[in-house]
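Consortium newsletter contribution from the modelling node. Members have asked for a concrete example of what our holo predictions look like. Here is one, prepared for the aspartic acid complex that several groups have been discussing at recent meetings.
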Amino acid sequence: MKKVALHWQILAGLVIGILFGYFFPEKIRWIEWMGNVFLRGLKMIIVPLLLTSIMSGIINIGNPASLGKIGMKTMSYYLASSLAAIITGLLVVNIIQPGTGADLGFNKVVEGMEEAVGTNFSDTLINVVPENIFRAFSNTDMLSVIFFAFLAGIFTTRLPENYSRVISIGVNAGFELIMKITQFVIRFTPLGVMAIIAKVVSDNMSEPGALAGVVQRLGLYMLAVILALGIHALITLPVALRVIGGINPLKHFKAMSTPLVTAFSTSSSSATLPLTLDAIETKAGVSNKVSSFVLPLGATVNMDGTALYECIAAMFIAQAYGIHLSLPEQILVVFTALLASIGAAGIPMAGLVMITVVLSAVGLPLEGVGLIIAVDRILDMFRTSVNVWSDTCGTSIIAVSEGEKLKTSI
Ligand code: ASP
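And here is the predicted structure:
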């Protein structure tokens, strides 16, 4: 029998999951465990993957000059793409004005809100240096693990030849091993995606009338977010791919289908990272040297979808409260949205918590979060996909600029 390609299997999983969650919400226990096992499998590999992929990326790049060059390109891409996303969001929210005249009947509180307000950006920066590296590993503190991996990679290249060779072989071997395990976990994606989506749908079904009521009230807001995400993902980034990278956006999209569907269903860029790395290397043909440097960093730092969402959500709350934000205040929203997206972890609903940072920066009422909480889980799926999509676009563009010939090139 001919084997059905993985992306079709995943798509089938998605559709079956939606149908199952819709028609049998009370039977969700039957399949929920599959989603949990799949997510645990992905989470299991994140820390060793981050450590080995970043270290091997740096060791393989080798000399500090080319490391600095790739580093500069990476940072420039992250900044430019996130800013482009936020500005798209700002334009859309000003045109559609979803919050103007909205009903303020809300009282929900978000878990973790207090801590988010307490953690300002400088604390986030300080916390990047872990007090205890093993605690950082066990808590999956992505930024701290990345920081340590960077140091370990850079100083490996400065060791005497006989030592650095041993570490280099060990780290590269470790990375290959983790990628093999990743490919094994990937085979279960269709089942995992099916179960996770079924759970999301059934959760939304269990609150009577929730979906319908919410969609009515917050429909315009959701529309604004999804429209702006769509413009960024389907116009801005593909144009950048084609014009700057000479890459065929459709081919690139097909090559990235597995991580994209996984990002959509798990709402976690970090959990998706193993699949993103696999797809960018095997399907797009980006070298390990570039991908293992740009992608793991991007999964935590570069979040176009989240940045755009932060901006629209803050503006929506301002509109709903009838607070007019002047141009300088809107510019402040743009920059805090950027910082919030950098600070947000690649886990579900991290962006919702970070909204409080934007709100307090411009003096908007924090309770406004209660207004958008009901639809956050759904919007999270879309913004996470855009986060991952932008990471893959950036990685390909940077690979091409380093002289690589990709399978997705025109
Ligand atoms: N869930 C998003 C991600 O993992 C972050 C967010 O909540 O915006 O990329």
